[in-house]
Amino acid sequence: MDEQQARAWLATAVEEARTGLAEGGIPVGAALYGPDGALLGRGRNRRVQDDDPSTHAETAAFRAAGRQRTYRGTTMVTTLSPCWYCSGLVRQFGISRVVIGEAGTFHGGHDWLAGHGVEVVLVDDPGCVAMMRAFIEDNPELWNEDIGA
Q1: How many Cβ atoms from other residues are within 10 Å of residue 72's Cβ?
Q2: How far apart are CA 74 and CA 103, in angstroms?
Q3: Its pTM surpasses 0.90
Q4: Tens digit of each residue's pLDDT (9 = 90 or more) over 73-103
Q5: Active site includes 141?
Q6: Over the Cα atoms of the chain, what is R_g?
Q7: pLDDT greater than 70 at residue 2
């Protein structure tokens, strides 16, 4: 996958993260794209807004995509390295690729995914890094709750 395409798809996830932040939630966004490049679903971390600890950005995008006959060839795009829960979702359903905005503020399960045949594209986007750093600095207790610390 070329960097221009990865950044274009990442923009969808960034929009979701910004919306989540504006709602008082955790600024992580995601989108699921089909093998043909069609946007299947998008979502954001809504654990605060919905009082539901299972509504991570990747699960919200996955749910919004609805049932697919297969997930082979699909790409999960996320602003932040996926946690173990979301990494498990990618692996369980055979999602082929994960595009990650940044992994500096949180290093989730993307190395494990790569080790199991999932293509991992780490964009290292300065905007994603800045958004998460500011959020963590301003909301350390909420962030630690979200990552299970």
Answers
A1: 11
A2: 21
A3: yes
A4: 999 999 999 999 999 999 999 999 999 999 9
A5: no
A6: 14
A7: yes
Q: Are the C-beta atoms of residues 132 and 106 closer than 8 Å to each other? A: yes
Instruction: Tell me how far apart the alpha carbons of residues 83 and 62 are, in angstroms, rounded to a whole number.
Output: 15
Q: Can you tell me the distance from the alpha carbon of 45 to that of 26, in angstroms, rounded to the nearest whole number?
A: 6
C-beta separation of 16 from 42 below 8 A: yes
Instruction: Decide: 109 and 63 in contact? Cβ < 8 Å.
Output: no
Which string of b and e fits 41-53 if b means at least 16 CB within 10 Å? bbbbbbbbeeeee
Of 146, 144, 145, 82, which is closest to residue 118 (Cα–Cα)? 82
Active-site residue, from 16, 23, 58, 145: 58
Q: How far apart are CA 1 and CA 77, in angstroms?
A: 12
Pull the structure tokens for residue 137.
């600095």
- CA 20 to chain CA centroid, Å, is 13
Cβ atoms within 10 Å of 119's Cβ, excluding its own: 13
Q: Which residues are CB-neighbours of 129 under 8 A, at least 6 positions away?
A: 102, 104, 105
Indicate the pLDDT class of residue 144, thresholds 50, 70 and 90.
confident
